[in-house]
Amino acid sequence: MEIPILNVGFGGGAPAELAAAVSNAGGFGVVGGTVPVETGLGFIRRARELTERPLGINLIIAGQEEPETAGELAAMAEAYVAEGVDALIVFWGDPAPYVPAAHAAGAKVLVQVGSVEEAEDAAAAGVDAVILQGVEAGGHVKATESIWKHLPLAVDAVRPVPVLASGGIGDGVGIARALGLGAQGVSLGTRFVACEEASVNADYRGRVVAARAEDTWYGTLFDVGWPDAPHRVLRNRAVDEWEAAGRPQSGKRPGEGDVIGMRDGREVVRYQAAMATGQFEGEVELAALWAGESCEVVNDVLPARDIVRRLVDEFYSVTTYSNEAQQSTAKSTS
Fold first, then answer.
1. Distance (Å, rounded) from C-alpha 241 to C-alpha 70?
2. Which of 46, 72, 57, 73 is nearest to 7 (CA)?
3. Distance (Å, whole) CA 210 – CA 172
4. C or N: which end of the chain has fewer Cβ atoms within 10 Å?
């Protein structure tokens, strides 16, 4: 890739069109793979029609300790790398079982981690790069520390394995800060939720654009289907009504079990860990609206190509390299 920017492959919300647009802009596009395997394979095939540049696919490996799930996930990963993706990006679990098959197929393995210790374990497992997450991130959050606190520690701990930064970064200023602390790239989720090619519910996307960092909420409320997994969402009626009820435990919460909408032909219930993708139809104010603190600097909806270009322009506007390059250009043209 020419530009060290990845989009997060947030499940069904990250289709081929998003990944291809990011790759065509010089970054590294990632499709969502935590979907039915035929959907994931379809994303890859369609993306290959739209770009000749490198592509990746994201797969959440939570629950791999269960034999049946482990087998299913391994089969999905093997199918994806056999289809010809350039990288398998995994999250929330041990990446070691996925490295041999990916490398045998010529794909690299990246793993998103939430701590320096987890980064060290991933490097020892043979991954090709680590994506370090900060607690500022949206969606499910492994981290408990700010990205700015543990990023330089992770870079030093796993050197020479490359480290990319994720969480709380949504503009070129944040990218410059991350690279200044030793990151070799960034993986951005919330910025690409507010993207024309992302398949997300329009009301959800509007909420992201209008939100500020203080509008996000961190906890374990949306746990149906994925218990005990902290996450960051936009505060909405589901959060407010739960707090007003005294923050009761799971099983005793307001509207527990109520159907709030449909997605891909299936019912979505209140407190379900389900993204409001473009296929979601229902009460957005009761859904999980994944978003990170970087919503503070995400104020518009643009094509992915324009987002990448703006990020690059913002990055160069705040770096010494940019100033030197501009001076050199001015001298050569005078």
1. 37
2. 57
3. 20
4. C
Residues 106 and 252 reside in one and the same domain = no
- Same domain (yes/no): 39, 154: yes
> What distance in Å separates the CA atoms of residue 331 and residue 334, rounded to the nearest whole number?
5
Residues 6+ apart with CB under 8 A from 225: 272, 273, 274
**What does the alpha-carbon distance between residue 154 and residue 127 come to, in Å, rounded to a whole number?**
14
Domain holding 289, by residue range, is 211-295
216 in the same domain as 161: no
Q: What secondary structure letter does DSSP report for 84?
A: T
Same domain, 163 and 217: no
Distances (CA, A) of 225 to 63, 221, 268, 269: 11, 12, 11, 10
Report if pTM > 0.90. yes
Rounded to whole angstroms, the Cα distance separating 169 from 112 reads 15
Tally of domains within the chain: 2
Taken in order 67, 106, 47, 184, the sign of the CA dihedral is positive
Query: Is 60 exceeded by the pLDDT of residue 328?
Result: no
What integer pLDDT is reported at residue 28 of this predicted model? Answer: 98
Q: What is the pLDDT of residues 102-124, one digit of tens each?
A: 999 999 999 999 999 999 999 99
- The partner residues of 113 in beta bridges, in order of sequence, read 132
pLDDT above 80 (res 327): no
Region at 178 (left for phi over 0; alpha for psi -120 to 50; beta for the rest): alpha
The 10 Å CB-count burial string (b at 16+, else e) for 162-183 is bbbbbbbbbbbbbbbbbbebbb
Among all chains, which residue has been given the structure tokens 């250009």? 329
75-109 as b/e, with b when 16 or more CB fall inside 10 Å?
A: ebbbebbebebbbbbbbbbebebbbebbbebebbb
- The chain-wide mean pLDDT, for the chain, equals 94
Q: What is the largest CA-CA distance in the chain?
A: 73
